[in-house]
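Writing this down once: the sequence line spells out the residues, with the fold written below as integer tokens. This is how one looks:
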Amino acid sequence: KPLGIFTERNVVQVVAGQGPEFNNREIREFMSSPILEANQNVEVHVAYNLLLTHKIRRLVVVDDEEHAVGVVTQSNLIEHLGYEYFIEIKKVSQIMTKVLSTTSRDRLVSQALRDMARNSLSCLIVGENDRPVGILTERDVAKMLVDRRDIWHLKVEDVMSAPVQTLGQQTAVHDAAKLMQKENIRRVVVVDEDGKIVGLITQSDIVKGLEGKYIETLKELIKDKDVAIETTSRDLAEKTVYLKNILHSSVDMGIVATGLDYRIHYFNPGAEKILGYSAQEVIGRNARDVHLEENVEISRFDKVIEAIARGKRHAFDFERDREDGKRFISASVSGIWDEEEILVGFVFIVRDITEKKQAEEAQRESERRLYKEQKRLEMLELANKLALNLMDELRNPLTAVGGYAARISDGDYPEDKLKKYTELIFEESKRLDTALEEAVAHLKAAAEKA
């Protein structure tokens, strides 16, 4: 089980606070502990909420036994949350940090580090005539320690990163994110038309910037689904939590959302079509009661709820009889979690897969017919071969029988000759009978295999 996390920010705080003596200290003295964890099976938006709420850049990922299996960072989130969809209309100037901390290039590194540690700064911009000439970051400090440099007598210009990556104020935020990803950096200095410093955009700014568009999209979804937004802040917050989870599901599916008391709060048109209930009929009702009406054992319902409370997701298929025939439904149930990772409700997603099932069955039927046709052709081919072989087998006995019969009919023969020809005819007849039996046996065996 992970006990703590030691980051570049910890490095700055240790170096600034301990001075040259930190080398002989144990890491447990300086690591951040306890740490914030997330199970490897949680959805990306849950990790997003955790990082945003706790204002951290890294989240330790654990398995079901709480063993560390990885770390998710702001860089991962920006990539996997699809930032181009969320923020491509935003400009850097809208979300950049305008209150900046700068330093001069001839200042001692030790003094700069104390400023960074005291104010929890991830970087200091090195400026000259209001223009960026370098940047001192937490990563630069960590690199100095790896290189075993004597930082106590170094100036900022000796260790700063230069030249500085810069962008204009009107640059699209997703372009800034792409630049960070390409250059493997977490921040870019923003300059005006004269190249003077006007701001700083970081990965944290981008993650925070996602929140505005995120909420805006949720409101649009509420409008599209014709769900009334309550006037009180409590109801608005409740619906926002529900719809955050809905946003991460395909809107062409049936979606049902309930609270912890199982009362149905959201029932979209897709659910009406697939499940056969109208929203007016079920909103406000207890989902357990609806399951009882559908003859679903409550013990099954409770087992699913227990699994979800443990962070699981339950998926299953079921059938429904309707006037237009039997329909096949694919379904999944998962939890709705608030920003403090507390379970606040459930979301039930259904999709009609009847056409898919019918297509699969049609394919299987086609394959069965093809198989039978192949076997029929194989039987015909075998019968043809047997017929040819039988003709070869019968040709000699028939010729012999015909020859002996012709000799007998041509004239008088002594009794011993007649007896000999008669015996030969009998032997050839037996050969004919044996050949026919073998041919019938082959056909019967082939038919049994088919």
